[in-house]
Amino acid sequence: MIDFAVKMQHLSLTMLRDDAPTASIELAKLEAVHLIESRDEDSPLDDMPAMEYQQLYQSLNSRYQKIAHYFEQPINSDNIKSEAVSRKKLENISNKVKTIWGQISVLEEEIRQSKDNINMTHQLESSLERFRNLDIDLGKLARESQFIKIFIGTIPNNEYDQLERALTLANTVMDAFHQADIHHYVTVVTSRDQQDDVSEILKSAGFHEISIPQELHQHPDIIRRNIEKQLSAYQKHVDELTENINKVISDHRDILFETVSILSGAKPYSELANALSGKGELVYLEGWIPEDKMQRVNQQLQQHLHYPYLLNFREPQQDELLNVPFLEKSSRLLKPFRALVGQYGIPEYSEIDPTRLFALSYILMFGMMFGDIGHGAVIILAGFLLRKKLDGLFTFTALAGISSMIFGLLYGSLFGYEHVIHPVWMSPMEDPSHMLVLALYWGIGFLVIANLLSIYNLLAIGQQEQAFFSNRGVVGLVLFLGSVYAGYQYMVNNSFGISELTIISVPLSVILWKHWQHMDGSIAEKALLILIEGLDNMINILSSTLSFLRVAAFSLNHVALALAVFTLAGMMDTFGHIVTVILGNIFIIVLEGGIVAIQCLRLEYYEGFSRFFSGRGRRFKPLKIESVL
Amino acid sequence: MGSVINSYLSSRLEVLASRLIRLESLPGIIESDLEQILKRFGCADCDGDTDTQVFKIHRKLIGKALQDFEILFRPFTGVERDLLNFAVHWYELSNLKTLIRGKFTGKSDIAIENELIDLESFAVLPLNKLLEADDPLEMMRLLEATPYSSIVRHARSIYEEEGQNLFSLDAAIDRLFFNGLAQRIRFLEFIDQQQATALFGSFMDRLNLLWLIRYRFSYNLSPAKSYYLLATTGKKIHSGNLMQLAKMDSLAELISHLPKPLNSLLENMSNMTDIENIMEHYVLSAAVKTLKYSPSVISRVFAYILIRESEIQFLHAVIKGKYLGFDESLIRQATGGMQA
User: Fold this and answer.
1) Helix, strand, or coil (residue A464)
2) Taking each helix axis from N to C terminus, what angle separates A523-547 and A474-492, rounded to the nearest 10 degrees?
3) For the complex shown, is ipTM > 0.85?
4) B45, B129, B138, B183: best mutation site toward chain A, by most A Cβ within 10 Å?
5) Which of A374, A434, A482, B275 is the most exposed place for a label (fewest CB within 10 A)?
6) Is A76 within 8 Å of chain B by CB?
7) A34: pLDDT strictly greater than 70
8) Does domain B76-187 match CATH 1.20.1690.10?
9) From CA A532, how far away is CA B219, in angstroms rounded?
């Protein structure tokens, strides 16, 4: 029932530099080593021999990805073999790919220019209309003058005011004859001696000159035809350029195919760069490896490395435990639950893996809160139909659905009908108080287990004092059980005497005394904080336990909702009745089912995980061969 | 903003303000050893050659400031949050300038990367992608897909006409930023708007005056071009003043036409460093006053950002001076604004 992380060993590998790329590939093939990136600053092996290789790899990868953006069909990577790639080989292919990208980049820039031209032509089209607003002789504007220079064009709206004021300093007049969404259409009139200065200012302002179209003197149809002709010419050019890019790619398909293979082979050594230190010809790396893969790694290295090497394994030391990665034992069934646990955090290496417990308690609570044979079956069916869209969803829904069906059988509930089948146990509505009491017992059991797990985890990470004296430790468990006992005595026997008070106050005092010892500040300040802390502890115990009443509340709610649906359906004719029952059941499954799923998660996270699970661990991420496609 | 959040922010500001370098300790910092300074400001682990070290330290100081800003910004929402986030984009624009300058001048990607500031949660620019661009044209195509697309056309025209100076692009970027900031201040509630505008105005007075002097008398630009490159108007020097000042033919004439009290503050000054120091002091006085007494919390946060930025510049100048082996009097002169 309780799982632990896969046992890890510390690996250190010292080898000759020439062997490092091969070692990276062999380790990556086994997917067995989680690299340690941080290195000792004072180590004599303070070079980082693979850094340049990594940069080379990254720039090659970046260029390849930019080119791959244009692929009409992805390169087939089925036959790609991952082999160690020498730096020279990486450099060679990098130069080739750089040349290919250079050609494409030039074409890309031409496409941009052509697209700019298309935009400008569209602008020209609309500006023809604008020029009609100019109450001047355009012929005069078009002619060069000896003393005056006229600029006509657009400037971004946000530049207009500042530009207008600046131009007055150059004895220049600017007038807007039209304002569009992002541009002002302007005429700027200046003297010939100010022309250069004004031209430079206009450039800084993002001015775009519009030549006065000769077409203005022509028939509107001719103008339109000319513009269309121009636009289609630009578009044709864009198409040709795109075609040229495709041609560049197809002409160099062999190189690009080789690049994929080289990138796959070079990736492990590139990833190794941050973990590999060295001096001269000697290199060194460290990592974490699952115990059962140690022998295999040694064999693989023996088989493939050309020079002698030194491979050491050892147990993790106490001060390293926080950094040892967490690798769970694989289980297909638990996969969707692992994802939910992962949302909260990754367990530390020495902590208990809570996934199995989480799965069991979650499924049980879901069934208790949403017990219905019909609804459970629908959940299973929905999960089955959607299984391809969400990985692992079917396992999750199947288990939740089965639990729902089992509790439906116990409650005698089928699509909300409480009297169609006889309950194996009882309908929740028969005795709501009993249901609430049972939910409380469930909660107490849940919290005791959470507390026990917390004690184990605290001991495992070396926090003995916390394990015994904190509210998450042994004394905390005593306080919780004492509070439950005192509560029981008070509620059932209406007694709260010395024994009840003692069983609460003694553990509480121990917890608070430990807190007091670790506090800074004046006595009054400490006393106030201790008082608040004490209150908080007690309120927390009460609220956490009562929180589980929702398990019963939702089972009652489920019946109540069904009753509401049947009451509504009872007011309808036969057809209306059927439709209301169907829609009502869908409503219950979607809305209440969703809420119950979230409430279960809430109980697991806040009442369970927050008590025993730090979530500060790091996942085991082995060096592995991955496709770059 | 609720009174609880106001009190919280005031306490936070008090704590952060108490950590600012005290005025009386500035001479002591200049007289300290480089090692002591680096240790005191948490930069002892910065290694590399001189340039790399100075950049690393600068980045580290900014990184620490950004962490504090993030804490201060958290309780703000809506237009206030927008204003503060936008103010921090100053550092992003600095990255953008570094990137454009680096790519245009053919610097290596590693050299450019070393000069970039890590903005973490404040970052908008896809810096890695931009860095990976093989040439400036590709970088500009990538920039077109970012919120800074409006400067691309300008950058492109500068790139195509190699003769142009990059300072005009810097000026365009700065103008875009300060106009954006002024626009956001206008959206604040009345008191906040009034207080923030006054502080921002003092800042713009300094910036516009210094740039106007440089454009007119160092770069010899025409009055029109000089005026155009300036950002929005300030507290004392309004648009009309700036237009008039841009027409002046000498520094003395320009200073004599400045509005009060700037004309008397800068009277008889002919050295740019002295003018910079006086104007820096002019802004810092306004910021310190705002930080201490302003009823507007957002203006106080804004003042804190300005003072913190000055502190970073001060430390950067001192550390750089120490690395380059300048004597203390020279460093004192260069950082005079903070001490004036």
Assistant:
1) helix
2) 60
3) no
4) B138
5) A434
6) no
7) yes
8) yes
9) 67
